Amino acid sequence: TISKASKERIRACLLRVLHEPDRAVAVQAAVAIAKLARTDYPSEWPDLITTLQAAIETSGAAIHDAAEAGILAQSAPPTRVLLIAADVLRQCLKEFQTVRVLSGKMRMAELARSLLPALQPVLERLFEDTFAAQDVRVWAAQPGIIERIRASHLLLKVLHRLSMADNGIIA
């Protein structure tokens, strides 16, 4: 077995993926984090979801600030963090949904109640900032547009999973 100290170091290393420039590495790390989270969250990894939530909210705010300042082209680093954090959260929720016992459903319902009100405004702002241009040619030529669309899509997937869990503990 892996010692508690080693597990903590592994978790810390895995969360550094939020700043990983290589998408393939980030995707694989997201899967690894989700697999660990299935057994370790919340008892052994209580700050996982709050860390991901904070990364999503902070990077979403930075993208919005850049859009308001007219420098959306300079928002690549926060967009990358948002993409990765949303993907990790999506993978974790997907993993949590596979727990079919009542405790798994209750965990998803609790996450839905805490994350939906926090993440919905992030998606709304990102969507508004991403699709604000009136001229399609101007919009399509924006630097980072594909990444922001992908981030919007991942956040929508996260919100969809959460909203499905919030329909009730026993559906």
Question: How would you explain this protein's 3D organization?
Answer:
The N and C termini lie far apart (37 Å). The model has no long low-confidence stretch (mean pLDDT 91). The protein contains seven helices and no strands. α3 runs antiparallel to α4. The chain has 171 residues and is an all-alpha fold. 75% of the residues lie in helices and 0% in strands. It has helices spanning 4-15, 23-40, 48-68, 76-97, 102-130, 136-140, 145-165. The protein is globular and about 55 Å long.
List keywords for this structure.
171 residues, mainly alpha, 7 helices
What's the topology here?
Blueprint lengths: L3 H12 L7 H18 L7 H21 L7 H22 L4 H29 L5 H5 L4 H21 L6
In whole angstroms, how far apart are the ends?
Answer: 37 Å
Order of helices and strands: HHHHHHH
What's the total number of strands?
0
Give the C-alpha Rg: 17 Å
Shape: globular
Q: Helical stretch count?
A: 7
Fraction in beta strands: under 5%
> Helix- and strand-based class?
mainly alpha
Low-confidence sequence ranges: none
Q: State the helical fraction.
A: over 70%
Can you give the mean pLDDT? 91
Largest beta-sheet characterization:
none
